Amino acid sequence: xxxxxxxxxxxxxxxxxxxxxxxxxxxxxxxxxxxxxxxxxxxxxxxxxxxxxxxxxxxxxxxxxxxxxxxxxxxxxxxxxxxxxxxxxxxxxxxxxxxxxxxxxxxxxxxxxxxxxxxxxxxxxxxxxxxxxxxxxxxxxxxxxxxxxxxxxxxxxxxxxxxxxxxxxxxxxxxxxxxxxxxxxxxxxxxxxxxxxxxxxxxxxxxxxxxxxxxxxxxxxxxxxxxxxxxxxxxxxxxxxxxxxxxxxxxxxxxxxxxxxxxxxxxxxxxxxxxxxxxxxxxxxxxxxxxxxxxxxxxxxxxxxxxxxxxxxxxxxxxxxxxxxxxxxxxxxxxxxxxxxxxxxxxxxxxxxxxxxxxxxxxxxxxxxxxxxxxxxxxxxxxxxxxxxxxxxxxxxxxxxxxxxxxxxxxxxxxxxxxxxxxxxxxxxxxxxxxxxxxxxxxxxxxxxxxxxxxxxxxxxxxxxxxxxxxxxxxxxxxxxxxxxxxxxxxxxxxxxxxxxxxxxxxxxxxxxxxxxxxxxxxxxxxxxxxxxxxxxxxxxxxxxxxxxxxxxxxxxxxxxxxxxxxxxxxxxxxxxxxxxxxxxxxxxxxxxxxxxxxxxxxxxxxxxxxxxxxxxxxxxxxxxxxxxxxxxxxxxxxxxxxxxxxxxxxxxxxxxxxxxxxxxxxxxxxxxxxxxxxxxxxxxxxxxxxxxxxxxxxxxxxxxxxxxxxxxxxxxxxxxxxxxxxxxxxxxxxxxxxxxxxxxxxxxxxxxxxxxxxxxxxxxxxxxxxxxxxxxxxxxxxxxxxxxxxxxxxxxxxxxxxxxxxxxx
Length: 810
Fold this sequence. Notes:
Layout: E1 2-3, H1 7-14, H2 29-36, H3 41-46, E2 69-71, H4 93-97, H5 102-118, E3 123-125, H6 148-164, E4 168-174, E5 187-189, H7 192-199, H8 201-207, E6 218-221, E7 225-226, E8 229-230, H9 235-245, E9 251-254, H10 263-268, H11 284-291, H12 297-313, H13 332-343, E10 345-349, E11 360-364, H14 366-369, H15 389-397, E12 402-406, E13 416-417, E14 423-424, E15 433-438, E16 444-450, E17 454-458, E18 468-475, E19 481-489, E20 491-497, E21 501-507, H16 514-519, E22 523-530, E23 536-543, E24 550-558, H17 564-577, E25 580-586, H18 607-617, E26 621-626, E27 641-644, H19 652-661, E28 674-675, E29 691-693, E30 710-712, E31 723-731, E32 734-741, E33 747-757, E34 760-772, E35 777-783, E36 792-799, E37 802-809
Parallel strand pairs: 1-35, 2-3, 3-4, 4-6, 5-7, 5-29, 6-9, 11-12, 11-25, 25-26, 26-27
Antiparallel strand pairs: 7-8, 10-27, 13-24, 14-18, 15-16, 15-18, 17-24, 18-23, 19-22, 19-24, 20-21, 20-23, 28-30, 31-32, 32-35, 33-34, 33-36, 36-37
Helix pairs in contact: 1-5, 2-12, 5-6, 6-8, 13-19, 15-19, 17-18
């Protein structure tokens, strides 16, 4: 009988020996105080507001370099939004949680940290550890789980991994930031028990000093209020709980523009105001508040010490040994591919998967053509390349396999970005576009090459005096017909396609927040009949507003296509004549994004109609759902298989193909409950008075839904082998569960333990990953939640709805 495995073995298999650098020793506090003593009040306060959007002020006389901060949860973007420096695009954080593997989370954190080191980034603005209170939440895909124990253990692993590379992890958004609607102002009303048991727990385990927690070096204060106090001013939570009770010695950084007061934010516990805007409520106003005695200088000193401590930890303070060198490994893409497949969840399978041989495949669906590797908002990064499902299946099935591709339906409200493959920089001939920054007289202040026909820059990133920005490229159509181009943005635009076709428009935001306007701006479309293979110049000229906060605009594009009814009919006919139909449906960044919540759990557009029609035409229909948060699946019992691929990052197409063909096990289990309908689902929308009542208390996720309301339960996921649960024992805070692989191939199982009792509604108590070959028996040690207090009954099984063993505790 084999014994062991779980997180240690998974981490060992996924992380090379050099991946975990020695942890940085604690800073010399006396040295930090000596440096602090050399600073004037103005210098000290100046250090507490950003120098720009992503940097802090250096202070040469104390050896302090400029600290660089960067989003985020999907990878390290760096200080540019424009793709100048491509980044690794990771599977979305919920996909990481779907691995149920803290060791793998740590390896993933280390890889993030290595990317940060390569980009000169000291502070990563991740992980996002707010809970899945409701699937309507716009940033659901950025968060780990509905369960506080699972979220805590994945978060702690990720933090340890990032910081082992010498980079600060920033745990966010503290706290109650579970909705995007009115997120700058709503008041989350949460009772103490619910706060402690659910929403604070992932923050505590990530922020407490080791060994009790992961010892995060930074925490981000959220925009919203909690129980009447704005989070950047919330002294009971920031100072009383985080800093004093939990012993957090890192930096509390505001979410961007979340500081709205001078005294209240300083006294509340915020240490660092970001970004550095001209209208900052700190700087001179905070200096005056100290001199007037409204803010103690000792409090400013504590904040500065925290920043210096952070600088020492990340190697930005002269005379303090920095962390050992770390760099992105050569096999990074292979790691992302394996991570994506490990997090993929097989929801249903009648034996059709894996496809052992496929002579003809109809690849159908809008997300087969316009794949969604990530959600929208500040988590967005620009990878060098995204592997599409077609590319992945073509490689997996070989050149002899016949693969037809049909979108089937068109659910997108906005056009996709103009593809790099169609663009040529008119100055250099490289793939891409040219961006010109012009002054009021039309003089060129800056011109540079872009890999994308879009601009997203904050004002401190563009040349002073810029009045117009022009994107120029040459487009060579791949097909003849009616091509659609779009100007997307807010403000005054001139769109030119060819020498004579120019359209001037002023586009205005249709309500919504500033972030929503940046993430899904309005667009104006122009249809032009173009022949294939003939290059045509395309230009989008934008005249800036007087004092823009940011510049965000770009070129959208759609190739010639059939009307939707004809396209759907063509897709169904392709499915009818194919051996297997693989339908890839899902969401996109107009649906799942920072800045707004979802208004429906249904798949956008006519996707449900498409799946039903394809399933009726071909009994071997495999549906792959490409989404970060639950969607309704009314057809789920009518198809051969349902594979949940999440927003799987840059290697997603290969990972999906690996799982479909059986080259990889679908190793994921659901970290959140999938409801049958929207009825009874908690709302993210505050009431008319601006309050968001958490009146459900601790009853979220699997604690909230009745069994008949659940399509797929928390913890659910199938594999390509079968398992028998043989026995369980528990003692001293650890359970041991013995399982046997009863199938004919090696597999991965997530052994889950749940506790229940007369005064204890069922909840997750512990978990571990196990791997075993055919016929192999393995005993899995599971660390139980130390917060559980007996007596209670401990259950073990494959999900909260499939528990087959139990023992009495206490």
